[in-house]
Amino acid sequence: MTAMINYTPRPNWLRASVLEACAKHTDVLKNSxxxxxxxxxxxxxxxxxxxxxxxxxxxxxxxKLWFAVKANPLSRVIQTLAQQGFNFxxxxxxxxxxxxxxxxxxxxxxxxxxxxxxxxxxxFLAQGVRTFVVExxxxxxxxxxxxxxxxxxxxxxxxxxxxxxxxxxxxLGGNEVTPFGLSCQAWQTIKVSDFPALNINGLHIFQWGNMxxxxxxxxxxxxxxxxxxxxxxxxxxxxxxxxxxxGLGVDYxxxxxxxxxxxxxxxxAKIKARAGVSELWLELxxxxxxxxxxxxxxxxxxxxxxxxxxxxxxxxINHLIxxxxxxxxxxxxxxxxxSASPVYFDLHGxxxxxxxxxxxxxxxxxxxxxxxxxFGLAGAYGFTESMPFFLCHQxxxxxxxxxxxxxxxxxxxxxxxxxx
Length: 420
Prior knowledge:
This protein is α/β, with parallel strands linked by helices. It folds into two domains: 16-46 and 291-417, Lyase, Ornithine Decarboxylase, Chain A, domain 1 (Beta Barrel), CATH 2.40.37.10; 73-284, TIM Barrel, CATH 3.20.20.10. Helices cover 29% and strands 22% of the residues. Strands 1, 10, 11, 12, 13, 14, 15, 16 and 17 form a nine-stranded mixed sheet that branches. An eight-stranded parallel sheet has the order 4-3-2-9-8-7-6-5. Helix 9 (214-234) runs parallel beside helix 10. The model is unreliable at 1-7 and 168-173 (pLDDT under 50).
């Protein structure tokens, strides 16, 4: 798939403050002993922009917002989200440990994920977590038993998996059968009264990803209300909370499409009223943090092959695997200014696999070896979604930009950092 973007010398996603910081950083690296490590690839997160963006998301009283930590678990990112009033959706012990380490209280944490073992459930309860999305009958029984043993009553949302004839396949399953939750028919086999240690007062559903149409989102949300209300009635549960997950998209292909947050809030106010719930939850990942992030790497080689212009980069899917999974590349530009006409290049990383391709994108035709390139919208599903160990390349560094200053949070690391 060839991804097309509208090339401009300074794309609208590339803020001047970030460009200046990256240019300064790469200039410093040219005279630094760490240059060889860091120029293989590093991430930069604009926390000033993130703070402004989060403040805008929080200016409403319709939705309770959670951050899906899997999108970006960097300490300073979590701290910024916490300061703006976000709660946190964690899906592993590692994510829980990281969030708690940022002085976030356990009562602001929601445990999701299909692979909750009996041991993990008890450990989460012991660490103070009191809100769970349950995805199986086993999890429900284990949580009830652990809560009884620890003399607490956690809040529970049952995760539901629905099917639509017009459904589509995506990384979260869409209309495909997945391990995320159970069907209404499967949940109908339980009795809420059989789990006295639990406060089962909510339903959770999340089956789509990176949606870019307000109308389509509202259509999907609307279709869910009737079967979910019916399930709650059959279970004789008081439905107080409806969690719609996330799925709000980011326009990686720079097509001009994008969601209106104001329209999302208005749509969800209608859904909330229709469902008659006191709380409506969203778990935001990319929509919260994608735009604050950038990835920088450099050109190692340039060549023409079967009439294809190719650039081989120092970093590829070892740092940014999302393009290989979704065929949606991150937008790119050169850091240095150029008046040369744009040309489409196939961008390949350093790994010995044809999967290591970051897209076919327009870059100024005078791009040369050693030119640093900057990829935008890389604040979500970047560093921790990558495959950094294959071929033993450097682990990417991570930096933050705050109040005009750039700060290294983690230095680039050689393969010896993890090889034994």
